[in-house]
Amino acid sequence: AVCALRSPLGPPVVRIYTTKPRVPGQKPAASTNDLGLAVTPLPLYAWAELVTEGEFPMPVRYSIYMSLGERGSFESEPRYKASHVAPGSPNVTVVGRADSATNEYTGCCIMSVCHGEIDESHFEISVSRGVDPALFICLAAIIDETTEYSMRLQCYLQNRKLQRIRTAQLQPYSIDIGTRRGARKTCTSS
Questions:
Q1: Cβ-proximal residues to 150 (8 Å cutoff; 6+ apart), any chain
Q2: What is the four-CA torsion angle of 33, 38, 44, 48, rounded to 10 degrees?
Q3: CA 98, CA 109: separation in Å to the nearest integer?
Q4: What is the pTM of this model?
Q5: Looking at the DSSP assignment, which residues form a beta bridge with residue 174?
Q6: β partners of residue 171
Q7: DSSP characters for 127-153?
Q8: SS3 per residue for the chain
Q9: Which range (30-44, 64-78, 110-124, 165-179) has the least confidence?
Q10: Rounded to an integer, what distance in angstroms lies between the CA atom of residue 69 and that of residue 119?
Q11: What are the beta bridge partners of residue 123?
Q12: What does the alpha-carbon distance between residue 127 and residue 135 come to, in Å, rounded to a whole number?
């Protein structure tokens, strides 16, 4: 599978492609060349589109829309919905619809971040029978990337805020204050 960010603007929307059709008669939606991935172009078939709402560590919701097989068209309702079990938790639960005719969602996957012996983190994924685990491996990779990006962005913005505060504290400033009799007085720091 190939995961590609659809647009760098707005909330992350990721297209998941495969190198083989997922639906009978499906036409390629892109190629590896279109995505800048390979010298020899391979056709890519749309499998799913993942839409995120929210920003980690606040609550984040993920919706997975499956391809209908027509170029660029996806189900109108998500086949799978995922969310972190609690704000700030890296663990994710996924519910899914058994078929597109019903709106009843049931649990189908649990993703947990585990820590190894050498302090290396990894995902453990448990999926229900009849569910394609490859889709949830893609979901885990996307969640890992978007969470890391979100955390880096938050650190960057926090550092800029602290730099502005420090710079403001070091700059001389003047404050114009009024007095009771209408005369003006200026206080200056250095």
A1: 55, 56
A2: -100
A3: 13
A4: 0.71
A5: 188
A6: none
A7: E-TTS-HHHHHHHHHHHHHHHHHHHHH
A8: CEEEECCCCCCCEEEEEECCCCCCCCCCCEECCCCCCCCCCCEEEEEEEEEEECCCCCCCEEEEEEECCCCCCECCCCCEEEEECCCCCCCEEEEEECCCCCCCEEEEEEEEEEECCCCCEEEEEEECCCCCHHHHHHHHHHHHHHHHHHHHHHHHHHHHHHHHHHHHHHCCCEEEEECCCCCEEEEECC
A9: 165-179
A10: 42
A11: 113
A12: 10
- How many residues can be counted in the chain? 190
**Encoded tokens for 20:** 């083989």
pLDDT higher than 80, residue 173? no
- Per-residue pLDDT of 51-99, as tens digits, reads 988 776 677 889 999 998 877 789 899 999 998 888 877 788 899 887 6
The token pair at 31 is 């190629």
The DSSP output letter for 84 is E
